[in-house]
Amino acid sequence: MSTEMRTNCYLPFLEINLTPARLQHSIGVMHVMTELAEIYSLDRTQALTAGLLHDAAKDLEPEQQLALVEEAGVELRHPCERHPVYLHATASACLISKEFSITDRLLLDAISTHSYSGDGPNFNSHLTQCLRSADILAPSHVWLGMRKLKSVVYAGRLEEAALLQVAWLIEYFHELNIAIHPNLTRSFQEATTRLAIGDDFFDRW
Ligand SMILES: [Fe+2]
Ligand SMILES: [Fe+2]
User: Fold this and answer.
1) What's the fold here for domain 3-141?
2) What ligand is nearest to the CA atom of residue 26?
3) Which of 30, 73, 83, 91 could form a disulfide with 51 if both were Cys (CB 3.0 to 4.6 A apart)?
4) What is the distance in A from the centroid of ligand 1 to the CA of 162?
């Protein structure tokens, strides 16, 4: 069975559980993951599945998301992880594991940590990092910085892309008054220490 046919089997579930806009977004993220799988030598099935299922629980009520996480016995590590902006990722991994008996740890962890919550050895795996990039490069809306991020990601510069994303996400969450997850602050500090970046690094275009 082709990868596309395998991922198609998730569509009926998503059509019921996601809004039409979210479903379109998820399909868009899957398409970007197809391209990133080539560039970063990801397993194609894992990449496409991660893209399609990453927001599976995002349209559930926050209480339902929390119930999924509690039912799965996953402990939230920080109070801010109860906010849906972070929680939906963990909840989505719990939901698809339960619904489709998915046990692939790399795939589940990529979905669970795509919002930068949680931890573990796959927190910054290539699959996770590509998923985070595909999530904001999918053509759901156009934003200032998108062209630059795309050029960096598609050039194979995943570490730089991760830093841009983290910096811009922190800015965005500040604007929305959303608590900044300590993982975001830590990722920002670690990456700025590791990478030699110029003055114009964070310029958007
Ligand atoms: Fe998400
Ligand atoms: Fe998403």
Assistant:
1) Hypothetical protein af1432 (1.10.3210)
2) 2
3) 30
4) 16
Number of neighbours of residue 100 by Cβ within 10 angstroms: 14
Ligand lying closest to the C-alpha of residue 57: 1
Rounded to an integer, what distance in angstroms lies between the CA atom of residue 6 and that of residue 18? 19
- Which residues, 6 or more positions from 72, have their beta carbon under 8 angstroms from its beta carbon? 94, 97, 98
CA of 131 to the centre of ligand 1 (A): 9
**Every domain of the chain and the residues it spans:** 3-141
pTM, two decimals, is 0.97
Cα–ligand 2 centroid distance for 199 (angstroms): 30
Cα(90) to ligand 1 centroid in Å equals 9
Over residues 46-79, the pLDDT tens digits come to 999 999 999 999 999 999 999 999 999 999 999 9
The per-residue pLDDT for range 146-179, each reduced to its tens digit, is: 999 999 999 999 999 999 999 999 999 999 999 9
Rounded to a whole number of angstroms, the CA Rg of the chain reads: 16
